């Protein structure tokens, strides 16, 4: 989204000068000047004109790629970073940027390959690269298994960016850099994007629920420069919104943003950071906006205001000192005299080393926000969290179709829609990186989850069937919720829950003497008569008992974790999370083919890879050890020299976990 330029890399400063025409005699000096002034829309065109007359160079191609990245035009960025890497002297960071652009465009296989390539090039970033490669696998899974939600691109979207809707009166207020249509309107251009400055617009529905005409909010709410990302009080008489003003830049020796390739403006150039402004509707007009008490535009940004349902907590995004990452979410509480308390960080459950921004509050108080630091599909993803202030439960990705490879943000829920309808913003599929507003509507069919609890046989008995377990306590959680429905398995191990199709649930089973087990399910129900079936397998909590980890496969003679194996290992990760005192040995076994030494080496590499993956998912390394047994623990007669079928050999090729504690 083009808002990334203004509302995300807060530690950058922004040149707000007018764009200037590029003459037909464009040369490198002019192009460099445009680039240094952050007029990227014109700079990229100027550099491309140079390519019509000159041989391409790494420096020019790289600046074109960086320009498109900074403008958030990911399709162009992906193309130009591919050209950058054709030069032998290209820096490794370009591989990372290429991967990021590919992931934003939904090219997940390519992005995964590039992340792994970057991790091999820059060993210090290898763990991060592996996580991003896993995110590509997860994104493909979510894409193939979308939530049952219908999206509609709204008819009032323009050819420029439209985003961050918020309910107001009988319609919505949103942010846009569309061309102003009023007679004599000044469409001053923002040099970074080559588009008009952002303004707030109001759109009302008539009695037939049809949209009327888009109207800009009047002055003094809208000002000359950027205005956007607003929220209104419950009575609609107070608006909190984000604004930028020109500020003189105090030149520093270095650019404080390590992710930025843009140089700071020249000394004393007018720049901008985000501020929150507050205006009230009195005597049939908006009052002159007052700055939020904690604005500090010469040092940091504050923006994206959001109010709790009772209006007593104000959330916002900022890059003020002391945070966890590039931008964090903060909150202030309303004092008795109507003032706001000092900002407090929302904590590291919500905030990451990346960017958290665009907070909104659903009618039930659920926090929604966007982040590129939590596991996502690319760009900004939408997340939810239950809690308040600095106390939050686990953060949940909203998955597809809410999220895509692009930027997804600014979600709101219709108070009358019971959480099933609303609007959000996204730049998915945009050739130019512009944002659109989408409406969404969920359609879910009620049905029944029919389950069976069984005891998994130990590895030495794996060919026997698991026996049903009675009196297991089952808890059914809707994903992201902490309130559970409770049931118990009967004498035959059977249990059931009423559910809805297309909703993600967590089923957690527990019984004394057994490890707690959680399973994630998202049933597809076509009618109320459908039965979604689930088998929940529990393991005895007994030291030295071993169990096979099913469906762990490796390519021939290789130890890399395949996507299908990663999904199975994720189940083991969940088991370790559910049972925090447990310690295990993860072992890998081969069949008897190949030499003893080779099989021993290969099994150890495979066990190491599996353990490394589990640790990368947040499990303490002290809770898990890797052990390769090669062909030393065959489970049947198929030793060296014995003629066996492939199925018999497969029985020996396995991964197990053994309880150490």
From TrEMBL:
- What name is this protein filed under? OmpA family protein
Top-level division of the source organism's lineage: Bacteria
The family database entries (CDD domains) matched by this protein are listed as: OmpA_C-like
Q: Name its cellular compartments.
A: Cell outer membrane
A Pfam family matched in the record = PD40
Q: Gene3D superfamilies recorded for this chain?
A: OmpA-like domain
Ordered alphabetically, the record's keywords are: Cell outer membrane, Membrane
Q: Where is the OmpA-like domain?
A: 541-661
Chief location: membrane
